[in-house]
Amino acid sequence: MNINDIFEKLMRPQERQWSEGDGNNGEDWRGESPSRPQVNMPKLQKVWIAVGVGFVFVAILLPWIATFLTDIYWYEAQGFASMFWRRFFARWELFAAAFVPTFIIYLLNWRYAFNSGADNLSGSPIRLPHVKWIIAAAAAFMAFTGALSVSGSWGSFLKFMHPTLFGEVDPLFGKDVSFYVFTLPFLNYIRDWLQGVLTAALIGSGVVYYMTRSFVFDGRALDLPKNVRLHLAALSSAILAVWGVGCWLGRYELLFSPTGVVFGAGYTDVHVLLPAITVLTVAAFLAAALLLVNIVKPMWKMSAVLIASLLLVGWLARSFVPGLVQQYSVKPNEYEMEKPYLDYHLDYTRRAFGLNDVKTIAVTPEAEVTAAELRDDQETVQNIHMWDYSPLLRTYKQLQAIRTYYDFNDVYIDRYDIGGRNRQVMLAVRELDLSDLQNPTWVNTHLEFTHGYGVVMNPVNEVAAGGLPLFFMKDLPSQSTVDIKLDRPEIYYGTMPDSYVLVNTAVKEFDYPMGASNMRSTYGGSGGVKIDSMWRRLLFAFRFRDTEILFTGSLKPESRIMFYRNVRAAFKEVAPFLIYDGDTYPVIFDGRIIWVQDAFTWSSRYPYSKPVATADRTLAQFNGVNYLRNSVKATVDAYDGRMKFYVVNDKDPLVMTWKKIFPGLFNSGGEMSPELWKHMRYPEEFFEIQSDVFRTYHMTDTNTYYNREDVWEITPAGYERRIRPNYVTMKLWGGKKAEFAIIVPYMPLGRNNLIGWMAGRCDPGNYGQLLVYQFPKQKLIYGPTQIEALIDQNPEISAQLSLWSQRGSDVIRGDLLVVPVGKSLIYVQPLYLKAEKGELPELKRIIVSTGGRVAWAETFGEAIERLVGQKVVTGIGTKTIVSGGSQGEIPPAGTALSDPDIKSLANMAQKLYHSAMEAQRNGDWARYGSEIKKLGEIISKMKER
Questions:
Q1: Residue 156 · residue 189 · CB < 8 Å
Q2: DSSP 3-state assignment of 216?
Q3: In the predicted model, what is the mean pLDDT of the chain?
Q4: Left if phi > 0, otherwise alpha if psi is -120 to 50, otherwise beta: which for 372?
């Protein structure tokens, strides 16, 4: 039995065979029969079908409906309902636009094929009363699945509908870049979709013709009836025409060609491939026309030869000829022939990554930093940070987590106005980690333990007794020695894994432990979604598959449910078309904790720009991107979860297009509070991408770039760890005052000396500016690896490190900072010590270097004194709150003192003594040790007098 027999058997009614004159009033298999066979479905089978339908409804459909409706409530609570509905309708507009024509194309072609095929059958036709419904169902199913896929391209569709001009044109076709970013991707998508639909229609029709025995292959020739030939020819002609459109659009894809010495169209692409694609386009349209001609005047053999010849010529012109030209014509004269295209590539890559406005300054640093330069540049020296992220995070976890259910996800760096001076600080947020809750009942995890609490902060350059951080803010409840207001220390929204909580319920929420009892409170904000009805409780029960929400008696009319509490997940839910920086950092502003998130607009369709290709997993989300802008700053309140998106670069066409699409989402950058703006920073991942691209694309001369004569690198080969950018407060060369910036050093490829460094400016007024200080090639400027080699060669340091290692301690080297001071550079590296089985790193030494000399000491001030040979002012007094609320100018730990008189020293000593006694009474031993250490320095100075 062959496949045709099987098909015919399956399609023949089992109860009785219908034929003309068999009681059907002369109707054939295509008509409606009044006497269809009735098949009694067993009751058990009906029961199982009902159970299956019910399971699908309860397990799949109801949770989907619940998620959909509760998402609406959440968007409404955030004030973003208009954005939700814009995306929703865009999806279904696309779905309808794809489903209707696809269904019609499939239905008409397959029904025609079946009817025509059945008419050409010899003998009795296949009898199937429901054939038209089976074909309609198959067409509907195929159209539905295809339309679902198309609806996912709502972003491309909306950008296509709301383009914004770039004001830049490509050098080959003279089209505005917006055509490649907004228009061409959607046109290509439509062309691919239409070609796929027509191809499926052609294959489906062919299968139907074969199954109905409408054509026969006898081993030598294929016998096709006329109507079959005409139908398949029409479909094939349409496919060829659409393919020809694709070839025409493919001309523009040459601007993204990855072959040759440039990314984009090179000499061979322009002079060989472009004409070849044009030939192939013409061949496709001629082939389509010839197939149509055959419908009117059959000449199949001649048409087949002509079509094959045209397509073969076009294919050869595109596949083989370019390789021959490249190998034998271009390659021997490559630079001269590719020079204009190299220039395009360099120029457009710099534009795409915002590097065309980089200010490059040639400087020649002095051999070493002098004591006078250290005295004159106090703000830079004071803010050189001694604390690295990883060791400090471990210390925070050990000293300030307090309980197992608290944790610090990361440590962040920022600057605050403290005591009238700009101070650089490290800080972390104490978030709730339910994974370590001792008794994880439903009440505990969803009603009682709902939020983290408090912030830990320490200055970057001060050390308390025992090599521990000197805390500005710490403990539970939050204790502060600085004038930074924090009225809302509760953290309901943060960076920990997401989970829902119910607030403002009959159950008091846990705030923090206090003695034998716990401090509790009731949420008083407007965050989350109201859950004030049985309907909403039912929906959320289905959404989270948690019946406790439905049956708990703890909910009140004013209760609210919080979800999407992971701030990064919330940002991605609202604006999935943006790329988000990996670091979401907290800012204490107006007494509240505000999370700040940098977001990027991006494209992979910028002509002649080489895409990012990095092996660094932290930057993997940027792979394939060839246009990038930090155009959006987003914030979310840690207490009530309110989100805001600010456009900070209105010159970016991509963000302006998104603003047209979602006008209710974005605020103007000018609407951000100036005080909050002072805490904005140049995003680290964006800076890493830019600094990596600039390694090669700082070369503006095409010959230099072609020969790769001046490629830089950030991390030299063989270096044990990757050199990452650092945030520092420093006075840039030529600047009038210190400013917050992110910096990274450059070294020549394959060499270890310093060739320059890049800085991204963060402070208001200069935000977003990139500066590159380029050093002379003929002078040795020590690089990080060379400084570390000098450190290893120092006998005193080497011996002590060996001794610590022999005692079973782990020595942790911090990041080596390269900081400009005066007209030279100073290198600073903190050194931490951790017990082999311990988790509490202690800052033991500060290593400093300049001019090829290395020194170290327990404090930065002592290390600088040993390095330059004299005491210098390496810090500025900070106002520290002491007992009774009085304030006095007290120098930071490790700071060498200037030359005050005895009376001033005595006043300082008295205030330090009172502060130490107060700390002792409060059991604050870290502060006590710090104050006693400062007091000892004051007494030593008095003895010298």
A1: yes
A2: strand
A3: 85
A4: alpha
Per-residue tokens: 171: 């050098």
Q: Between the CA of residue 260 and those of 107, 290, 319, 733, what are the distances in Å?
A: 47, 37, 15, 41
Q: Distance between alpha carbon 212 and the CA centroid of its chain, in Å?
A: 54
SS3 label, residue 668 = strand
Place of tokens 């953290």: 491
Query: What is the pLDDT at residue 377?
Result: 87
Which residues touch 78 (CB under 8 Å, ≥6 apart)? Answer: 574, 641, 642, 643
Amino acid at 756: G
Neighbours of 606 (CB within 10 A): 27
**Contact 150/95 with Cβ under 8 angstroms?**
yes
What is the tens place of the pLDDT at every residue in 724-782?
999 999 988 878 888 999 999 999 998 999 999 999 999 998 999 999 999 998 889 99
Please name the amino acid found at residue 268: T
pLDDT per residue as tens digits for the range 114-173? 887 666 555 544 555 567 788 899 999 999 999 999 999 999 999 999 999 999 999 999
Q: Tokens for 110?
A: 């397959």
pLDDT (tens digit per residue) in 651-676: 999 999 999 999 999 999 999 999 99
Side-chain half-sphere exposure of 326, counting CA atoms within 13 A: 17
Say if CB 484 and CB 416 are below 8 A apart. Answer: yes
Helices H, strands E: what count in the chain?
30, 37
- CA dist 662 and 656 (Å) reads 10
For residue 789, the one-letter residue type is A
Amino acid 538 reads L
Rounded Cα–Cα distance for residues 893 and 904 (Å) = 18
Residue 56 pLDDT greater than 70, yes or no: no
The C-alpha atoms of residue 755 and residue 376 are separated, in whole angstroms, by 26
Say if residues 931 and 893 touch (Cβ distance below 8 Å): no
Q: Where are the beta strands (DSSP E) in 604-637?
A: 627-637
Distance between CA atoms of 893 and 430, rounded to whole angstroms? 26
d(CA 547, CA 685): 42
What whole-number distance in Å separates Cα of residue 149 and Cα of residue 169? 33
Tell which residue, 66, 80, 75, 76, has the closest CA to residue 536.
Answer: 66
- Number of alpha carbons in the 13 Å side-chain half-sphere of residue 182: 21
**Is there a contact between 528 and 455 (Cβ–Cβ < 8 Å)?**
no
Kindly report the number of other CB atoms within 10 A of residue 825's CB atom.
26
Q: In one letter, which amino acid is 648?
A: V
Angstrom distances, CA of residue 929 to CA of 106, 468, 485, 876: 82, 10, 26, 20
pLDDT in the model for residue 540: 96
